[in-house]
Design goal:
Elements lengths: L20 H15 L7 H10 L3 E2 L4 E2 L4 E2 L5 E3 L4 E2 L4 E3 L4 E3 L4 E2 L4 E3 L1 E3 L8 E3 L2 E3 L4 E2 L4 E2 L4 E2 L4 E2 L4 E2 L7 E4 L4 E5 L4
Parallel strand pairs: 1-4, 2-5, 3-6, 4-7, 5-8, 6-9, 7-12, 8-13, 9-14, 12-15, 13-16, 14-17, 16-18
Antiparallel strand pairs: 10-11, 18-19
Length: about 180
């Protein structure tokens, strides 16, 4: 018996149209020059560029060098959020950060995946929501469809594959609750 195998030649992505080619090309250039760069452009200028491309940005965004944002028109950022160096927001669909969210260096927010059960390896898209006061630790990964509820913490190097409860600290791969977050 021959089991069915993955056949990437069958992959069809026509249903996924994140924007016109000219819009995506213009963003690619702007992202490389102004956002995903080591040049220390001020955060207020980076916020303006993101808004120019359709992102909804609140007041007081701090965005460090070498941040990579796939499509700003699928990004909403609340007031007083921090996005650390080398963060990758791979937002093939909506990513929402509420107020006072901190995403530390090297973290990744991933909204796309593939259906490994299908030979054609179909694309699966699910948004990500980070509620007020969430902290995503350095080198952590938030997977498609995850909501990090108010003031949850994803510890350094951890992987959130499921929703994170409010005021709870998670660690590991997959991330597990390790204790309550108490703010004094």
């Amino acid at each position: 018996m021959n089991p069915k195998k993955t056949d990437l030649s069958q992959f069809k992505n026509k249903h996924f149209q994140p924007g016109s080619i000219s819009r995506r090309l213009a963003w690619y250039v702007a992202n490389r020059i102004f956002i995903n760069t080591s040049i220390l452009f001020p955060s207020i200028f980076k916020s303006w560029i993101l808004k120019l491309f359709g992102a909804k940005i609140g007041r007081g965004l701090v965005i460090k060098p070498k941040v990579n944002i796939k499509y700003p028109w699928f990004l909403t950022v609340g007031d007083h959020c921090w996005i650390g160096e080398n963060v990758w927001i791979d937002n093939l669909t909506q990513v929402s950060l509420e107020a006072n969210v901190c995403i530390s260096q090297g973290a990744m927010l991933l909204t796309g995946n593939h259906d490994y059960k299908k030979a054609s390896f179909d694309l699966i898209l699910e948004g990500i929501r980070l509620e007020d006061g969430v902290w995503i630790g350095s080198k952590s990964v938030v997977c498609p469809g995850v909501t990090c509820f108010s003031h949850s913490v994803l510890a350094v190097g951890s992987v959130a594959t499921k929703d994170l409860d409010s005021f709870t600290i998670y660690q590991g791969n997959p991330a597990q609750a390790i204790r309550k977050r108490e703010i004094v």
